[in-house]
Amino acid sequence: MDMRANARGVLLSGNQAVAYGVLLARPDVIPVYPITPQTPILEQIIELHSEGRMKAELLTPESEHSAMSACIPASLTGARVFTATSSQGLLLMHELLHYASGARASIVMCNVNRTPASPWGFWPDQLDSLAQRDTGWIQVYSESPQESLDGVIQLFRVAETANIPAMICHDAFYVSHAVEPVEIPSQLTVDEFLPPFKPDIRLDTSLGRSFGAPADQRNWNNTRRDLDAAMATVPDLVSEAGRLWGDLTGRHYAPLEEYRMDGADVVIVTMGSMCGTVREAVDAMREAGVKAGMLKVRLFRPLPMAALRQALEGVPCAIVLDRNYSPGTGGILHQELKSVLFNMRNAPRLHGLMAGVGGVNVSPAKIGELVAQYQDKEPQVGAIWVD
Length: 387
Prior knowledge:
By secondary structure, the chain is an alpha/beta fold. Helix content is 40%, strand content 18%. It folds into two domains: 8-249, Rossmann fold (3-Layer(aba) Sandwich), CATH 3.40.50; 257-374, Rossmann fold (3-Layer(aba) Sandwich). The chain is built from 13 helices and 14 strands.
């Protein structure tokens, strides 16, 4: 049977696409608190729920902290759980993000990347989720509404296999509110891909298990080792989910995406919505005779280190464009890549540029200028800001 036969194409924003992905994943419990620019996700879910199309238990607690407090026990009873947030809401959840991963709760969350205060702002910036990179959550960054819909469904499969919570992140407004053609797969396709959630370890009176009990030093240490072992399986799980989804829909995904990398003298590395702009810039540079390529990082946690080293080996120059700023160090993706490429033979000269921080637009022409400016330079120490 051709699983694509019953798919339908519609115009959706990134946030609406997420809600339709949630609908198709058949969650049991959805605790969500609204926050700009995530609110349309909740609004679309409420609409689908009120129409009787979504059967989940929909909770609207008094804060994001309370929303995550509801997600964790629901997941630990064996329910499939989804939530969504952004910026200050994600920061308010911070302590519970650690609890969720430590309890191995297979929650899926969409975070709409937005500037954290202060000053107050609502613009696309990835610092909110990147500041949570040590909480033990899988992190995937989406470029488009279609990728966000597909990513929600795939992450349920990954999170529930690894028993690790996962967040899919997309940029405020550039993806969250931008409307594009999106193919909504049939329920039959999603049911074929995503089996019901039936965890072996769950809160059940017949099993006699508990969660959150105090642990001594060695047992706490062992929980980190177990989490590390589970995290090590995630890149392969993401690859497998992307391949199987591609077999069903024609849209294949992987932890990294390479674009026109063959024979590239300079590779631009970035995440999220900026990848579409970089793609246009690469095409223009290739037409002008510049051998440029792009490396799109979809999976940021766990960082696919071996794949990154393989993709960049022998490339003369790589330029990282970061839509975030970690005070005192610079761009976060740049810092991570420096660690990954340390002591690697044939590593590229690696430049890190703060481009698009706070949602500032970076045009294809500007990216071409940056390549011309930095391609033949030696890397500099410290944060480099793009005007």
